[in-house]
Amino acid sequence: FRKNMKKVRVSAGGSYEEFFRQATQALSQYLSDRTGLPAAGITADIIDSVLAPCGVGAEAMEKLRKVFEILDMARFGAGASEASQRGKLILALEDAVRDIEKCPWKEART
To answer: What is the pLDDT of residues 95-105, one digit of tens each?
Structure first.
């Protein structure tokens, strides 16, 4: 995750599309590594069906939902174009992952 987040930080100063592509990739790859699901199949839809049975708490899942919402809005052209908004997304992404890491992760994968 840290390696991918370095790419996200570097891309924050570049194009809008590259920044959100890198952020989406970092989140998808992290969740893929945690759940065993293919990164391409990672969407907000897995939050309840996959993460809850693994022991991820409600607060962590809500933070993750918000990050997915921002990334989805960006994909459809309504996202953060200013540097300060990109910085907030980076912090939100790191915060969500930090909360997931604190959860009593179980091996209940679907």
So the answer is: 999 988 887 77
Distance of alpha carbon 57 from the chain centroid: 16
List C-alpha distances in Å: 36 to 27, 56, 103, 110.
Answer: 14, 15, 17, 9
Amino acid at 96: A
DSSP 37: S
pLDDT for 20-47, tens place per residue? 889 999 999 999 998 888 998 888 888 8
pTM of the model: 0.83
Question: Helices 16-35 & 58-75, crossing angle to 10 degrees?
Answer: 140
Helix, strand, or coil (residue 85): helix
Q: Where are the alpha helices (DSSP H) in 44-82?
A: 46, 58-75
Question: Helix count (H) and strand count (E) of the chain?
Answer: 5, 0
Tokens read off for 13: 């100063």
Q: Would you list the DSSP string of 9-27?
A: HHHTTS-HHHHHHHHHHHH
